[in-house]
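Honest question from a wet-lab person: if I give you the sequences of every part of a complex, can you actually get the arrangement of the whole thing, not just the pieces? Trying it with mine:
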Amino acid sequence: RKEVEQDPGPFNVPEGATVAFNCTYSNSASQSFFWYRQDCRKEPKLLMSVYSSGNEDGRFTAQLNRASQYISLLIRDSKLSDSATYLCVVNRDRRALTFGSGTRLQVQP
Amino acid sequence: GAVVSQHPSWVICKSGTSVKIECRSLDFQATTMFWYRQFPKQSLMLMATSNEGSKATYEQGVEKDKFLINHASLTLSTLTVTSAHPEDSSFYICSARDLLAGGGSASTDTQYFGPGTRLTVL
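Yes, you can. This is the full assembly:
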């Protein structure tokens, strides 16, 4: 079983739509959680950290459920520029990051 | 934010040759750098953890004699792919942990990624 699992998609949504991605992780000792965005043939870039209380950054909302070992990302009012692959990432004991395989989003005009 | 550079950004080489990739933290010190590899449509997979002044720690299945890592200073780590073969063609990405960021808290651990090096072995 993969340590971080995501639905690969693709999610094809129209501009302005709300879209949600989910992720599960298997290691209950995981301590920190992130969503990264990766554009084609580029390095991943940090989108936001995910906190137990849930957190919001503009149109993006992240939630963490430690009991279920589940992380989500909600994107409201999708823009064409949101098209990318979204990577669910967990970290433990300040080690290397463990990446999910990513969920591809395509926002269409 | 902190900047990590990688050089070269892409390289094409013949089978059997060796390729060196550099990863530099430009405006911060990094005792630890990580090397990842990403094949098309797959996740980033950790290859090794590079520690300044000591031997790298390799993940299971990664040959240390094939992927030589040197972390000679707090701002530079190098990955050398020796005797490269077509199956080594991949996107190699490094990340660096900011020594002074986060105050030691795992929840604020910040890693910065280089732009990646695309290796094609013919």
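Two things worth pointing out. DSSP finds no helices and eleven strands in chain B. Residues 103-108 of chain B have pLDDT under 50 and may be disordered.
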